[in-house]
Every structure is written in C-alpha cells, then in structure tokens.
Write a structure and sequence with these properties.
The complex is a heterotrimer of chains A (173), B (769) and C (292). Chain A is of the alpha+beta class and 173 residues long. Chain A contains 5 helices and 6 strands. In chain C, the strands form 4 sheets. Chain C has a 5-stranded antiparallel beta sheet. The chains are: A alpha+beta (173), B alpha+beta (769), C alpha+beta (292). The complex binds flavin-adenine dinucleotide (FAD) and FE2/S2 (inorganic) cluster (2 copies). One FE2/S2 (inorganic) cluster binds next to loops of chain A.
C-alpha cells in the first residue's frame, strides 16, 4: 500500500488562492477545518456541517463545493478558491463591490459562500436569467436578506462586467 | 463596566428639532459601515477567534422533559483528570439567569424542567475528546409527568411552574364588551394557532470566556444585549461590576435569538474559564443550537367579535394564550406585546383582551422578531377575513370600515395623535398589486386549472420601542466621543447583527454634527467602553437610540460653539480643531444623552391603559398565492408590502429589512415547522427544519410612505419587526381566496392542507384535476 | 462536527484496480467514499461507524458517460452535474437529466455521484425512479470480473442491495429507446430546491390507439426501497385509457403503496399525492392521445 496516497499526516498539498500549500492533516479532516484551522482562512464559515447552508462553499477545480463535506485527502492536488482570494480592500472584486452597493450582505455570515456561489454561477453562465440566479444560489441559505438584494447584486455584477469587457478593462474573474 | 465619564456640561442651545430639515447623509445609501470587512471575509465572528492555549467547553443536557436528578455518574473509561467539570455546586453566586424573573437556573439543581436543560459543563483542550466525555456522563432521573402543550398546562392537573402554571397574565378592558352582544347584527368566532419558529441565524450561538484574578471575567460573544449578559454574570459569578466585561463580536444573525440565550451560554463559558483557569470557547453546532436554544412562542388566540349591520366592529373579546416553555425568560413582555397587538389596527368601542403565558416542559421560548405581535396579528388578520366571509363583505372593505384614524383611540385608549394613513397604505397596496384585476382573472382561471390562485391581505401596526413604561425603566444612556486621533465614535451598547445599526447610527451622528459619514465609526460594543443604551430589541434602535445620538451630536456641537469657539458654519478641520481645544480643557471630548420620556405620554401598568407605544409603524401587505390541488402545496408567487415607518434613514438597508422579514414570515406561514417528540425537537437539522431558499422566496415589492416621527432619530420609527407581522395572515387569506377554505393554523404544510381538505370532503374522489 | 477524523482511516489508491485489490483482500472492510455527500454528513453527525474508507474521487475510470447505439453507459463516479450538462443524457435520458437537477444544490451536484446515490439506497433518492422506468441496468465490478443486473433487482431491502462485499458499482446503463415513450417525472419535496423528496413518481408509457401497450411506473418514498409499481402497471396494461381506468389505477396505487409517517411527511399524504401524480400523468397521456 506504499504507493497509495494515504491518510497520514505526511502532507497534503493543494493550491489555495493561487498559492501552493501543504498541510499535515488527517485525510478525513474536513477541507473546511483545514482552511480555517490549519491555514487560518476563516472567511469560509460553518453554518450547518451537513451540506445544507452553503456558508462553507468554496470553488475546487472550477466547481462549487461545500467544504464541510470534502475530506481533505480528496483535495490533494486541487486548485481551491476561497473568499480571501476574491478581492482586496483596495480592489474589491466586482462581485464584492456589487454586494456592498446593492445590500447583498447584512449580517455577512452567509456572504463568503454566497460570493463564491456567485463567482461559480457567473464563470459558467455570464448572463444568467433570474431563474438561473435563483437556482445557482439555492444552496446558499441567507436568513437576513430574503435574497432579493442578493439577486440585485448578481444582476449588477453582470452589468458591471459587461461594461468592463466593452471598455477593454480587465479584472481577474 | 463602563465608567461614567466626567459629566458633560449641557449646552443650552442644542435642543432643536431636526426631523424636517433637509439632510445630507440621512436618507442616502451610504455603504454599510462594516460592509467591506464582511465582503472580504475578514470580519471576525466568534468562531473565527482562536486564543493561545484555549480550551473548549461542552454541555451535558437533560434527556427527559421533567424529572428529578437521582445521580450523576462519570464513566471510568474517561480520564476525568484531564477535564474541568462544572456542576451546580461550582456556581459562586446565584444559580439564576437575571431576566424579568430570575427563575431559570444556570445549571439544573436536582431537577430538570425541559429536555436539553444544562446539567454539567465540561472543558478540555481537545474538541473531539469532549464529545466522547459528554456521552460518558450518565445522569439518572426519576421522571415526572411533563406538561407539553398549552392545553395540558391550562388543565392545571400537573403544576410545573409556580402555583398555577401561569407565567404571566394580562387583562385589558375598554368599554363594556358583555353589553355589546345584544346589539350585534353579527357575531363571529374563531380560533387561531401558531407554531414555534426557529430563528435559524446562520451563525450558531458562541461565547469565549477568559478569567483572571486581576481583571475578573471577560466574555466575547455573538450576542444582542451585552448588558443583559453583564447583569447575569454579576449575579452568577458574584463579582463586583468592574470585574465583569462583555464584548460583542461580529454577529451572524440574531432576530431575537441572541437576546436572552447568550446570558446562559456566557455564564456557562465563564464558569468553565474560572474553574479551569483557561480561556474557554463554547460554540454550539447546528444540532445543539436548534435543540437547546429559544424559539418563537407558540400561541392560540380566540376571537369573538360583534359587528353591526354595516360591518363595523362593536365588540372584540379576545383570549390570548402562549406557550412559554419551562422558565419565564421574556414571556411576560412577549405576552404584553401580543396583547397590545391582538385587536389589530381597528377602532372598536368595546374590547377585552385576556391573555396568559403558560408554562410547559419545553425549552423556554424567547424573543423573536415581532415579539408576540406576529402571533396576535395572524389571529386578528385571519379573523377579519372570516368576518368578511360570514357577513358577506369584501375583506378589503371590512378592514377599511374599521381602520383607526387620527384622533381615534386604541384598545388601551391611546389617542392616535400622529397621522394614521392606513387608507392610503391600503390604496397603494391595491393599486401596486393590481388587486381587483388579478382577483377577477384568477377567479376565471381557477375554474379549469389544478393550480388555484388567490390574493390575501393583511393590515397591521407594530408598536415601536419598549411597551408602556419600558423605556422609562430602561433609562438608556448613549453618546458620541471624539478620539485624539480625530475619529468620531458612536458610544452605544446597541449591536449590529445585520440590521444596519452601525450604519444608521453613524449616519445620524454625522448628520447631526455636520461632518462626513466616513469620519464616524462605532466604538467597540464592550461594556468597558460603551454606556448602557439598552438592549437591541423591540425596533427601538433607530427610534429611541437614534434620537439619543441625534441629541448627543447636537449637544456636542453646541458645547463646541459655546466653549471651544466653533463657528456657526464650520469645516471639518475647524470641527476637529475645536474638539482639540475642548480636550485641552476637559481631558476628553464626549457627549452623552439620557433617555427623556416624551411629554404627555402616560401609561398605567396596573390598569394596562394609556400610551402603549410612543409611535406605531403601519403596513398593508398583499400576497399572491398559488395552491396546487395535486400536491396540496401552497406557494407565494408575488408579494407587495407598503409601509409607513417614519423617516427612512437608509433606503437600501430599509428595503432589505422589509424583504428579509417577509421571507421569514413566508417561512413562518408555509415551511417552518418544529416537529416535537416527547418534548424535544425531532428535526434539529437544517435538512429537516425547512426555511425558504432563493428559489422559494417570491418577487417582493416594497414601498414606503414617509411621515417623519417626532420621537425618532431624524424622524425614524422602528422597522425591523414590522414586516414579519403580516405575511402569515396575508398568505393564509390568499389561500382562502384561492380555494374557498380558511385555515387557522400555521405552519400550514401541504400535509396539513391535505388533512383538513380530506376531512372536510371525506367523500372526495381521488382526482388529479 | 461530532465525528473525529482521527478515528477513521482514509486512503486513495488512485486507480480502479488499486481499490478493487484492496477490497478483494479484505472484503467488507473498506467502505468506498465517492463524493462524500452521504458519508461526510454521517461523519459530521458522529454517525459514521466504518473505520476504514477508500476514496473513489478522482478515479477517471469511474467517471465517464459513453453513448453507444442503444444505450448510455454512465460511470458510477459521474456526478449529477456531469449528467445534467451532458447532451445525450438530456435528450436520451431526459428523466435522469431532470432528476439530476434536483439533487440538492449546485455545490452538492458537483460532488454527488450517481453511484453513491444508488448504493446509498435511500427510498427517497431522486435518480432511482427515473432509472426504474427506463429498464436501466447496473454493472458491478470486482477483481473477479464484471456483472450486469437489472437495476430493478439491485435494491433488496431498506438500504440493502445485491452487491457482494468486494464489489463496487461500476456503471449504470440507460437504454435510449425510452426517449420515444411518453415520459413523466415529478418530485414533491419540502420546498422548491434543496429538498428531499416526500414523494416522487416516474412513468414511461406507449399507447396505441388509446390502448396502453407499455407502461412503467416507479415511485420514491412509497416503500422502504425505490421500487417499480408493478401492480398498478398491471391494471393499465392493455387497457384503453379513460376515466375509469385512471380511477382504478389510482386505487391500485394507493393499495400498492406502503409509505410511512416520518419527520418529513405522512403516509396518507404520500399515497394520496402519488395517486394524484399518477392521475396527472395518465390525464396527460389522454390529452396527448386526443390531439390529432
Ligand atoms: C445537502 C444535500 C442535499 C441532497 N439532496 C438530495 C436530493 O435532493 N435527492 C437525492 O436523491 N439525494 C440528495 N442528497 C444525497 C446525494 O447527494 C447522495 O445520495 C449522493 O448521490 C451520494 O453520492 P456520493 O458520491 O456523494 O456518495 P458517498 O457519500 O461518497 O457514498 C454514499 C454511499 O455509496 C457508497 N458508494 C459510493 N460510490 C460507490 C461505488 N461506486 N460502488 C460502491 N459503493 C459506492 C459509499 O460507500 C456509501 O455507502 C443530498 C445530499 C446533501 C448533502
Ligand atoms: S457548513 Fe457546509 S453547507 Fe453548511
Ligand atoms: S446576510 Fe445574514 S445570513 Fe445572509
């Protein structure tokens, strides 16, 4: 079994927000806990631990996953994006900017996951209909907003990104 | 404990009214104060905080609803020397949480009164060992007969609280109800029930506690009311005021659910920290949070109503019963609000409301957005539609004929001195929803379709601020200071948990002083730093606290003009320069204001009469509902909400409050059911407690009519709770409109719809269309 | 998080043979974990009893969708996102494509595999009814070789199935000929999205001159296991469809259904709604037939 990628604390490596990271973590440890405890990326939240709320959503190899349901061994070699990789205070990502302006974040606890779900949605479908926005975000529960201003935020990002594309400006998507 | 700074010399010129003035900042959509931190994922919620050498705490809970504790055994397979174990014997002070009645123990003392009641606390440096240890504490009970429903409690065969199971009762009387029945053209009766509702804030409860001999106890927590926590810790730990400190961390939703519960959790964490000598973190996972913390009070409201031949109300006889759970917590004030909202926004010469909160052996119910009003309004607003049906009148018309207007008196004989514009709100709601046109269309379409549509309406008020003399007792203190670094800080104990406290109070401060929004920040909510400006509840923040901040700002400017040479018109630089001159004299630049009851406001606690609230917010809501007769499920397809909440301080935040409240109200009506099994919540997981998702919440249309209120900060009234009051009755009225059957209980799940329809038409054929 | 990662062992051999060898050496000792959307939920709740887990995630040999002449072969490791995005699944196995969109959220669909859904064997699983009414087959694999059995004989009881302890689910084969049938699939969940089915009904049918020549019906949450409704089908077989036949079929379904009361719904509701769904399907057939 020596060729197997095992359990051990030998070291699991993946790329997080563009940076290669190696952690000595147990294989069954949740990706969520590794991000939060080992890498101190506490932007990713735990709301339920059972795949229901989406506050732990991150992107893994270009797909949206709930990090509470990913054993970290299965993230070996993966490319992971979390809210911390989205934008910076001086240069908010258009999605962050839109949520700020449109009232898409209230208490903010669902927000990191909501932002990642939005990033995923727009990566796959840059011009979603309202129905597609609803479906794309249905796994991310928000108890504060009633979702309306979240939908408005997503719609605003689309407009903003289109405008940027037209004027030739670029932003890391 | 916040140490009262040097008393500020009061300025004589500062007390001007500003609500009618044009504003630069108030009323605009400035960015949320803590917004950027939240969007970057760097806002620090409780569970994001780790401390060197920190231990974790866990709770051993009761597995039965009622019984005597015979013994507590500690299984030998665990090495208990590694753990800190706290039982009731370790409590240095009083074993009671300090709320209205101090009847709720911090830890069970020989007896348990509800499932999940805390019995033993454990702490250990390794989270995973804790779980195993919790399971290894064996509590043996001598079970006692529990009381689990309002009806069982009412029977008073088994007494589980006080002498009679009654946590609180009120009697409100106006006119002579008993004499009215004889003159009535119609008498309509109805009984309405509402279920428990879980807050389902996405961040679970959590607290970190640190103890040292020198500093005493400090707790950080996800909480609404730091001074409630402070008060309980003083009593439980038996410490002097300067040895107790409560600090709020970023709070991921609360909705009332972090009003009283954190006092218990903070006491637990503090006891473990004191005994272990380590910093202790206690966070609940979702299952524990759902099972062990408070929910909205279930209720049963009975109406008996007399009307004259024109559909005008002659008498209302109302009986309100709520399930309070095992201890009082906030049941009396919740009951009070339910009582005061139960007659609805109508004029009636004869009213009697008799209300009781009953004790049962369930987890104590607590505060939840609306605080008794949603229960009461569900009943009256459903009842209005049943009245309409009984007397053969349009539900809109029945309401219109009975609406309160300026000068009318409410059931407590409070005269409506401020403008009441219910007719206008109603008209707007009807127009915006194209009510009559749609209703006509649906009546036509419903004849041939399996999905039947209907429209339902609800009209209501929500009293802003504490009930009756509440604000007088609170005697809140709030203010503004200016730091040597040139930051203007708002000093309040009022917390941000999504509603926008930070933003609106900063707007008010900036506006009233005349500086930029960006120059203002919130002082940390830390009982060592901010004064007790009262709890963040009861839609009182923008109105009551907002007013204090408005006054504090004006007072500061007045002082600077009088004593530091600030000119009438001033620049930012001149303002801060003046502050520095004042600082040289006084050592600090601080302006505090204490609550002053508006003149002419009178409330009699004994008779339960007078000015119940300084102001009311008003709303009319319309729900478009679709009932699928194949699946018996009802959905809301579109929703309209028109309201008058005084001045709108921030259009984006205000809209977000309304929409969020409506979404919760939709959940309350159609999805959110607490399933009970032997006194414990059986569906304590998000997969089984169903809240509406992004696909379930319909398009919501929100409209404000603004009438600045003289009591509120820049004319604002409360807004946070109002929107949750109306959706449930509006939706069930819509269902009645769609299928002609009235349902009187929520949550109304498809199974309930099915069960009632099947009983009603027991010979109904199996049919798809 | 009630489970303790350290109480479990997880390995990732990285190849199908690697996994099968492991399972052959110690049959029943290793629990496969694919997308983990069932296993990690159990783990978080402290309910995961199995100590040794072997990862199937990332094994390309299990994650495929291949179209041959008459059927689509779907690897057990295909995710529901793979399924819903696939053109031929959409056109040739549209019921399955539709079911795929219902499996939780987007985040769930990008991890949840069809293999995990079937092996987990929940009576409420969304892919099951869709597969049952299309005569799907499942292919099992072990070091001893591969074997194919009808999916309808895969589930043998509540959360029990026909696999031996050294076997993996390898693939699901969905015949394409049902694309020509009239089809029906409706899920009644607790809400619009992120909902476990309270009851679901799938059907495929062929009518000739108003007479039912072929009909297959299957339901979720009406029995302890996902199952065809053979007795209800029998009432309809060879019958001219009309109000009476529909009524009798609905009554047969209410008889045949053995649902339970649980935390999500009631038995009475489930039977009745399933009968209503059947009525909806059969009336659709009737209307379609009546059209010139
Ligand atoms: C939030 C949420 C919502 C959900 N909603 C739905 C829904 O609406 N409808 C629905 O049907 N399901 C739903 N599910 C469950 C669904 O995600 C799973 O059933 C999924 O399909 C299981 O696949 P997995 O790869 O994640 O399985 P795992 O968790 O990895 O495994 C599940 C079981 O299958 C076994 N297994 C997996 N692959 C194989 C294989 N190739 N051979 C042998 N055994 C194997 C495992 O040993 C285990 O016993 C939901 C789950 C979550 C968390
Ligand atoms: S914490 Fe992962 S989905 Fe809720
Ligand atoms: S903003 Fe609070 S949960 Fe979404």
């Amino acid at each position: 079994m020596s060729e197997h990628l095992a359990n051990s604390s030998a070291g699991i490596s993946f790329i997080v927000n563009g940076e290669k990271r190696t952690v000595a973590a147990h294989g069954m440890k949740r990706l969520l806990d590794v991000l939060r405890e080992d890498l101190h990326l506490t932007g990713t939240k735990e709301g339920c631990g059972e795949g229901e709320c989406g506050s732990c959503s991150v992107r893994m190899n270009g797909e949206l996953v709930n990090s509470c349901l990913v054993p970290v061994l299965q993230a070996e070699g993966a490319t992971i994006e979390t809210v911390e990789g989205l934008g910076r205070a001086e240069a908010l990502h258009p999605i962050q900017k839109a949520f700020l302006e449109c009232g898409g974040a209230q208490c903010g606890i669902c927000t990191p996951g909501m932002l990642m779900a939005t990033a995923q949605l727009l990566a796959v479908n840059p011009h979603p209909t309202i129905g597609e926005i609803r479906e794309g975000l249905a796994g991310n529960l928000c108890r504060c907003t009633g979702f309306k201003r979240i939908f408005d935020s997503v719609a605003a990002v689309v407009v903003e990104m289109d405008a940027t594309a037209k004027t030739g400006g670029a932003h890391a998507g | 404990m916040y140490a009262m700074p040097q008393p500020v010399r009061r300025s004589s010129t500062a007390q001007t009214m500003s609500t009618s003035e044009k504003t630069r900042i108030v009323g605009t959509a400035v960015p949320r104060k803590e917004g950027v931190d939240k969007l970057l994922g760097r806002a620090r919620y409780l569970d994001d905080i780790e401390r060197e050498g920190m231990w974790y705490g866990a709770t051993v809970r009761s597995s039965i609803p009622r019984g005597l504790i015979r013994s507590i055994g500690f299984d030998r397979r665990i090495d208990w020397t590694e753990f800190t174990v706290v039982t009731v014997a370790d409590i240095p002070g009083r074993n009671h949480i300090q709320l209205i009645n101090a009847d709720q123990p911090v830890l069970a003392d020989g007896m348990v009164n509800h499932c999940e009641e805390a019995i033993v606390l454990l702490a250990h440096p390794d989270k995973h060992k804790l779980r195993e240890a919790v399971d290894a504490v064996n509590v043996e009970y001598e079970p006692l007969m529990p009381v689990l429903t309002i009806e069982e409690s009412e029977r008073q065969e088994t007494i589980v609280w006080g002498a009679d199971n009654i946590l609180k009762s009120f009697l409100l009387e106006k006119g002579d109800v008993d004499a009215a029945w004889a003159q009535a053209a119609h008498i309509v009766e109805g009984e309405y029930r509402t279920g428990a509702q879980e807050h389902l804030y996405i961040e679970n409860n959590g607290v970190i506690a640190e103890w040292s001999e020198g500093n005493g106890i400090t707790v950080w927590g996800s909480l609404q009311c730091p001074y409630y926590v402070h008060k309980s810790l003083l009593a439980v730990l038996d410490l002097p005021e300067d040895k107790v400190r409560a600090i709020q961390t970023e709070t991921g939703g609360a909705f009332g659910g972090k009003e009283d519960y954190p006092s218990t959790l903070a006491s637990h964490a503090a006891l473990l920290a004191m005994k272990s000598g380590h910093v202790v973190k206690m966070t609940y996972d979702r299952m524990e949070d759902l099972a062990a913390t408070t929910k909205r009070h279930p209720s049963r409201v009975r109406h008996r109503t007399a009307l004259d031949g024109d559909g005008k109300l002659l008498a209302m006889d109302i009986e309100v019963a709520t399930d309070g759970g095992a201890y009082t917590t906030l049941s009396s004030t919740v009951l009070s609000r339910a009582t005061l909202h139960s007659p609805g926004p109508y004029v009636c010469p004869n009213v009697r409301v008799s209300s009781k909160a009953w004790a049962t052996n369930t987890v104590p119910y607590g505060a939840f957005r609306g605080f008794g009003a949603p229960q009461a309004i569900f009943a009256i607003e459903r009842h209005m539609d049943e009245i309409a049906a009984a007397i053969g009148m349009d539900p809109v018309e029945v309401r219109r004929r009975n609406f309160l207007h300026d000068g009318d008196t409410t059931a407590t004989e409070q005269v409506m001195r401020e403008p009441v514009i219910l007719d206008k709100l109603l008209d707007r709601a009807l127009t915006e929803s194209d009510y009559y046109e749609r209703q006509k269309r649906f009546a036509q379409e419903n004849q041939t379709r399996a999905v039947k549509r209907g429209l339902g309406i609800a009209a209501f008020y929500h009293g802003a601020g504490f009930t009756g003399s509440g604000e007088r007792y609170l005697n809140s203190l709030a203010g503004i200071d200016v730091t040597p670094e040139g930051r203007v800080r708002v000093l309040v104990a009022n917390t941000e948990f999504g509603q926008g406290t930070n933003t609106i109070l900063s707007q008010i401060a900036a506006e009233s002083i005349g500086i930029d929004y960006d120059d203002v920040e919130m002082a940390p909510v830390d009982t060592n730093v901010v004064p007790n400006s009262g709890p963040t509840v009861a839609s009182r923040t923008s109105m009551v606290v907002g007013k204090l901040i408005e006054r504090a700002g004006l007072q500061l400017v007045g002082t600077l003009r009088e004593r530091a040479g600030l000119r009438e018109e001033f620049t930012r630089e001149e303002f801060f320069a003046a502050c520095e001159r004042l600082r040289e004299e006084d050592g600090a630049v601080i302006s505090l204001c204490r609550y002053e009851a508006p003149a002419g406001i009178f409330w009699d606690d004994q008779k339960y009469r007078g000015e119940a609230y300084p102001a009311f917010a008003w709303s009319v809501q319309v729900a478009q509902v679709a009932v699928d007769t194949t699946t018996y499920s009802a959905e809301v397809e579109e929703f309209w909400s028109v309201q008058e909440v005084g001045r709108v301080l921030h259009p984006v935040l205000a809209g977000g409050q309304i929409e969020g409240g409506i979404a919760q109200g939709i959940g309350y009506a159609l999805y959110e059911k607490v399933v009970w099994k032997d006194g414990r919540m059986a569906n304590n997981q998000m997969t089984n407690y169903i809240m509406p998702t992004a696909e379930d919440v319909p398009p919501i249309h929100v409209y404000f009519e603004e009438i600045p209120c003289r009591f509120g900060g820049f004319g604002a009234k409360g807004i946070g709770e109002l929107p949750h009051d109306g959706p449930a009755p509006a939706i069930l009225n819509g269902i009645r409109d769609a299928i002609g059957v009235g349902f009187n209980a929520i949550p109304l799940l498809p199974e309930d719809l099915f069960a009632q329809l099947v009983t009603q038409e027991s010979k109904a054929e199996v049919s798809a269309v | 998080m009630r489970g303790n990662a350290e109480a479990h062992e997880l390995i990732a051999p990285g190849s199908l043979t690697g996994v099968l060898e492991l399972m052959a050496r110690a049959p029943g000792e290793w629990m496969p974990i694919a997308g983990g959307t069932e296993i990690m939920v159990a783990h978080a709740a402290g309910r995961l009893r199995e100590k040794k887990l072997v990862s199937l995630w990332g094994i390309g040999e299990l994650r495929f969708i291949e179209v041959s002449g008459e059927s689509i072969a779907i690897g057990a490791g295909a995710t529901f996102r793979d399924l819903r995005m696939h053109d031929t699944v959409q056109s040739g196995a549209s019921l399955l494509a539709k079911a795929a969109t219902w499996i939780g959220s987007i985040a769930n669909q990008s991890r949840a595999t069809i293999g995990g859904n079937l092996v987990n064997g929940s009576p409420a699983a969304d892919s099951s009814p869709a597969l049952l009414v299309c005569d799907a087959e499942v292919e099992l694999i072990s070091m001893r070789g591969k074997r194919r059995i009808p999916y309808s004989s895969f589930h043998t009881g509540y959360k029990r199935n026909a696999m031996t302890p050294d076997e993996l689910l390898y693939a699901v084969h969905v015949p394409l000929r049902f694309a020509q049938h009239r089809q029906y699939l409706r899920k009644v969940g607790t809400r619009r999205a992120m909902a476990i089915s309270k009851v679901a009904l799938a059907g495929t049918a062929l009518l000739h001159g108003g007479v039912v020549s072929e009909i297959r019906l299957a339901a979720a949450s009406l029995a302890p296991l996902p199952a065809r409704l053979y007795r209800t089908e029998a009432v309809l077989h060879g019958r001219a469809l009309g109000p009476l036949a529909i009524r009798e079929a609905q009554e047969a379904l209410m008889e045949e259904a053995k649902p339970i009361d649980d935390i999500r719904s009631t038995a009475a509701y489930r039977s009745r709604v399933a009968a209503n769904l059947l009525g909806e399907f059969l009336n659709e057939l009737l209307t379609a037939e009546a059209r010139p």
